[in-house]
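Hi R.,

As promised, here are both runs. First protein below:
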Amino acid sequence: MGRTKSSSGVQAVVERLTGQKPCPAYLRHAANKYLDSSLFPNSRRSEAGRAEKLANKEAELILLNALKLDEAFRGETETVAKIIQNELDPTELSRTIDDTQREINRRFEIYSYWREHFGTLKAILTDRQVDFKKQRLDEKLRQSQGQSPTTPPLPFALRAIQNLETIEERGRRGRWSAAEYAEQAEAYFALKDYAKASQKARDAITVEPNHARAWFIRVMVALHQRNRAIHEMQRQQMISEEVAEPMSAHETMARELADEQASIAASFHDDLNSILPKALSNWPRATRWQFEHADEYRIVRDIFIDQAFLTAMNGKRNAPSREVRTLNGLGPIWPSKHFPLFASETSDIKPELPQHPFSEDEVTLLRNLITERDKYRHTFFNVLGDGLLARNFKLLHLRWILQLDGYEKHWQEWSEEAEGYAPKRFEVEILHNRFLSRLWQSHKVRNTGSYAVHQTLNNWYHSINERNNSHSVDVLLDQYTQLFHNSFASHDYKTCFETAVLAEKYLKPSKLARSRTHHPDLELISYTAYSDTYWLYLQAISVVSAGLAEEAVNGQMLDCLLTASTLHEQFRKDDTWQWIEAEFYEEGGGDEYPVVPYEIDLREKRLWIDALTNQIAFSTVDQQEKILIELRSLEGSES
């Protein structure tokens, strides 16, 4: 004979309160869930302990209200408990109710669509002429919809709702597991409810910090939210520029909406960047080296590589520009009034290398990605995708910053790949990029010397010119300007001279001779890149600087120095070699004025005389005679 049911037991109380007899299992489970919650603060979770909690009428009323709210709020135990205990402020309570109402309305609309179209579905299924091996059911339903006022739901929306309801039913029996939260996140993601999908993914991560599926949904939500905001920003910009009448209210509104979406996109982008390391480290895997959702993994991974590279280029928060340059191996900054020397740079004390700006999680992930790249070198990046050359170079540079093993081999492999690609791709991805072109030169000089930079640029130029590229000279002169500038800051005057000579060789008669170009390394400086006088002046600067530094010069450099009087006179009469520096005022506006390149004014005789005089000790008898003749010529020329 079975045990007699107690009239004060949980089941009996629920039956009496709800009128449901015998008590359904789902009601009993829900009652136990709330009896074990904060609504009934008692540590005992046994049947006897629960019965004690129901010993008074107030407790029964609380339980009955909890069961009713549980039905409306889809088993959200904490939400129901907070409502009954008045722990939600009016604003939060109103938002919670509105969210729940929207969710019920959404489900009602999805069920209503199917209720309205089940007759159509029946007609299609009973039509023997329909062959489901050759025809799509969704298209047949769409064609049969006609003028129905009901908006079709998202594909498989009903399936997502049914999955949610299954999980919610399990939640009525107790707290959800991380896997159940993740399932809900996935369902909301399918319904394009990104806010709820993100929250459910966060709930799963709270329960299980390394839950792979939850991190995947969370990063996918962040990516979709960012992309959607960017798309809307671009749409509003297009409206303001191409649709709206100029100076109209329509144009003003479109611009304001574009600015608003830009701010939203920036916020979503920051959120995306903050979760990239954890999301990638916990990405769902089929095997140790095989990822699920491989296409999405590559997209997110490449975003992380781009972001890590940008972090490296910016350095730590508020890091001075010198520290950032040192971190990225860009060498010394040419000292000027804008960048005076540090005390450590004028002493024999070698400055400490700056620390990298990455977190421990970011370093671990970068190590793993580099290991993965080494293991699957030919398939790591999408060979047909845009930016392959640039992104591989970014990973190479990050490897160098972190001083990880394998840098030299990685550089050699990248160089071979870069030279094997179409020259246009090398130009677009590397040479046209302000940051990558500087870093490429730096790595090239570090590994194979300045001559290799000259050789690579020369090969690229002749290869691209066979395709009649009119912009190749622009790119080449920009690269030579960078190389000259970095070499001059490093006091490598021989490379400076050779670079300026090569640049002059590529100049052709042009109307651009007096046009000015922004200097790639000096923000406020412009120069006459197409002027042969400018590049001649840089040759002369290189020679004079070497002479003043008491370095021996020979060959073409000495020949240049032995034309001192001629060059001195030429530079006095033709000032196209001068830089133009821009100055902007705080109150608005600005001005421009000429400045001497690298603060070496070759119109001053004394510079030439000292440089020539210092060469006498390094010269043969014949060379000394030529130097003395040039000195007399300089001293006798017009002041």
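And here is the second one, sequence first, then its structure tokens:
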Amino acid sequence: MIYKQFYTFINSHWRSKTLCLMCYFRSVVWFIALVFIFNQNTSCQPWLYDYYNLKSAGTTLSFNEQQQAFNNYFKEESSKKGYKQFRRWENFMEPRLGDNQLLDSKAYWQALQNHEDSESLDTLQWIYVGPPDTPPVKSSDDKSGNGRLNCVAFHPTNPNIIYVGAPSGGLWISYDYGSSWLTTTDKLNAIGISDIVVREKDGETEIFAATGDGDGGDAYAIGIIKSIDGGLTWIPTALSLSASNESFFRRIIMNPDNTNIMLATSSKGIYKTTDAWETFTLVETGNFRDLEMKPGSPETIYATSFDYAGNAQIFRSTDYGNSFTATTSGLNISGKVNRIEIAVTPANNDYIYALCSSAQTSGFYALYRSTNSGVSWSLMYDDSRENLLGHSPSGNDIGGLGHYAIAMTISPIDHNHLVVGGINLWLTTNGGTKWNLTSFFYHSPDYEYVHADQHHLVYSPHDNALYAANDGGIYRSDNDGATWEDISNNLQILQTYRLGSAASVSNSFVCGNQDNGTFLFDGSSWQMIQYGDGMHCYIDSEDENIIYTSAFEGSLYKSLNKGQEFQSIKPDFDIYGAWITPFIMHPQKSNTIYSAYQDIYQSNDGGNSWEKISENLSAENLRSLAIAPSNDNYLYTATYDQLYKTTDGGISWNEINTAFTDLAITSICISPNDPNKVWISLSGYNETDKVFFSANGGESWINYSNGLPNTPINDIVMRYNSNNELYAATDIGVYYRHADTSAWINCSQTLPNAIVSDIEIIESLDKIRIATYGRGIWEATLPQPIPSKADFFANITTGCFNAPIELYYTNTLAFDSLLWSTPSAIVLSKSSNNDTLVISYNNQGRYTIQLQHYRNDTVINEIKYEYIEIRDTLDIVLSPEEY
């Protein structure tokens, strides 16, 4: 992970330096209202500290308030820690939120149910492309990262079986001590996992899992689920989100003496069950995060709350979790701590440690220890010494990611041996008065490497091996943290933002990933070619040695030697774009590239020099950018709510009026043969508004959404030389439509229910390739294109006398001329190339329309019989809102 300091170093050298790297089982689907608590991952972030101290207790922040607090906090110094974590969450949430600033959980659930029940196009057989293993860093044998994990759990009797939970990639199981992994959660309604507990019952292995993403907040959740057959199938528990009042969960613990007794922490409080979640009780209200049981004494349970304003507390129960009381003796944390991680050990079950994150900085605040089961506490280490949650290997920095990444565990055989993690991992052997760095987040000859951002540390109960789950996967140490081994191979959990495929038949592509850099697949092997958060990336269409990549907020890079070295090509050091800044390559001229900030920049020499081709185009960051393949004078760009177009290569720009400005625009698709035929995809949960089409460059729009699920549509692409074959990327899979279909068709039969973030057609290979946010890269071979037709449609097919009816030619085929046949119609107007015709009728009846397409002495006919119906009266139904 590249933190802001390293990012600033790169930017400060970008004009003159060259940067070199050192380097299926179908599950039961049930009716549960899916929810996503949008403020969960910002709950303890330092920019909310002052804000919440001015608010009354129990106040809930809107998305806009959190965004404003963040912007104020980072206004003077954007190098403070936590910047990227918030921007990731913001990027996920902002386009998906409705007017009430909440995700529509009911709409999402219904979309999933319809998706599972819908007829699927089985001609697309999706296969997982990769990465199959954790890719090595280019030019070295060092491993990078393979995707984020939240938790690790173990089979109660079999030491070879290990379980891990990914925030958007599901639950994974290893049966061979971490050598390989498999998942059975791909068809669950939500595939984010925050915590796992396992038991043996009647000869079967039962697994209980908390869904969603308790730390990062960029996944959907459906409550606590269980499997009674070792993870082959999954069913709900009584503690579904509909039953638990839209809570999100982080921890589950189980009483080893009576495994029917379990407790779980949530944003609503602590829940307890005595019958394995057949029923449950809310035993303590409040926002709770960590949870531990006293080894050998399950009547004593510890829990921690978290708080925006720094009033996180430690709670203690001595009646098996039926009631809890705050324990404060010896603690000096009131108003100072946002999150607390606790740990216990069978080596001395009276000992409990508490690792505290500062509410003002999310860095290390203090380590406390209790030697009497939490009755009283002693300070062991404070923030005047090493910052155990920071990024510096010497611990001399300020701040950290304690609101997002904090973990601690104690050796099961030595109560003085602790390992804690924030960004890096630190170890003490004397109870916390002296610490040594045991791993560093960046490859260095001086330190062991473990990927950044620790979410869980735990010792195996079988062999005392130590495990770390973090933003790069899972690591194991067999010597109490002195050395580490990455065992993430075969975990298919990569969260990918964007991908870019080679135009040739080489099968090469690059992909930009959340916190795991940019990967290159050269047709046979995978390599990481850049660190950090990777965004838009491309392989030059004429020279595959040339690779373009980008990082967050518009940092652009170019390599001339297939990713061995990169140089910055950002147009201007002082401009910053969206989290995923639009960055595209000309479809025919590979040396011509474009990037969109609040203005559009064009380079005709591969990024050596740039020209700004707009002036004060937008006050907001642009989010989408597209160039017409048939006429490069036509470019379209958009913020979330405003669309712009140029027809003269950027000399002048016009705002385009749209019918969907209350929804976030996510992508723009232009016909390969006509620059005025445009499709726009939209985010959000408006059931009828997903994709819109314009045949006249945005002068008017037709709703093209029929058949799409009511989830965000993240991308849309068209296949060349086809009958308008379109593919849409959604939050639950891929959908397909062509000119002869009246609705979109689900073509995700062999895909996991994952968020599809990007989609590409590789024309030279007849393949479709997608990036998912949590399940890596997938592809399918496309069938032969459907023969093109001279297709058209009308804006209305039923009308009154003299009503204007607009006819649009919709095919992507180039033409020499078009000829309409509209008997009995009055022609009111037509476009210059005859691809749009406006007609009316003055007699009732049903009318046939014919269109003839002429190209190179070939004629294609399209006839729609009795296509238009004219009536003397029309029935109009008004909804209550219209009275």
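A quick note on the second one: Residues 496-781 form a domain with the Methylamine Dehydrogenase; Chain H fold (CATH 2.130.10.10). Let me know what you think.

Best,
J.
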